[in-house]
């Protein structure tokens, strides 16, 4: 699937992760990528066919809600040992607490 819009969620430096979310307004389907900030390597790439973002630029809370919905099936519960070392779980928690700073990105067109 091809996407027209992208935003990067930058978390606090201590966690060393960022989340990229790609979408096309008014169409179903988003792609969420959890990345290492320093190396840019993806930890996890997930396509969520049932999620949608309606506008080219969305509110931070809307982006965080889509990240939570997309990552929820892949995260560890916070009562599990070692959850803090799992990038997907940390990304979910950062989105849940509104701790990402969202920056719109330009996709190559």
Describe this structure in words.
This protein has 109 residues and is an alpha+beta fold. 20% of the residues lie in helices and 29% in strands. A 5-stranded antiparallel sheet has the order 4-3-2-1-5, with helices on one face. β2 and β3 form a beta hairpin. The two termini are 14 Å apart.
Largest β-sheet summary: 5 strands, antiparallel
Q: What is the succession of H and E elements?
A: EEEEHHE
Indicate the radius of gyration in whole angstroms: 13 Å
Q: Which shape, going by the Cα principal axes?
A: globular
Regions with little confidence, pLDDT below 50 for 5+ residues: none
Strand content: 25-35%
| Average pLDDT rating | 90
Query: Distance N terminus to C terminus?
Result: 14 Å
Tally the helices. Answer: 2
Cross-sheet strand order for the largest sheet? 4-3-2-1-5
């Amino acid at each position: 699937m091809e996407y027209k819009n992208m935003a990067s969620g930058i978390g606090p430096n201590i966690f060393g992760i960022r989340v990229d979310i790609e979408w096309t307004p008014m169409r179903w389907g988003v792609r969420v990528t959890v990345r290492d900030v320093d190396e840019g390597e993806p930890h996890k790439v997930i396509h969520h066919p049932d999620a949608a973002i309606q506008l080219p630029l969305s509110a931070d809370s809307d982006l965080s809600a889509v990240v939570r919905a997309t990552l929820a099936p892949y995260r560890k519960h916070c009562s599990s040992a070692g959850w803090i070392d799992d990038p997907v779980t940390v990304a979910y928690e950062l989105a849940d607490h509104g701790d990402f700073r969202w920056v719109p990105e330009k996709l190559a067109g």
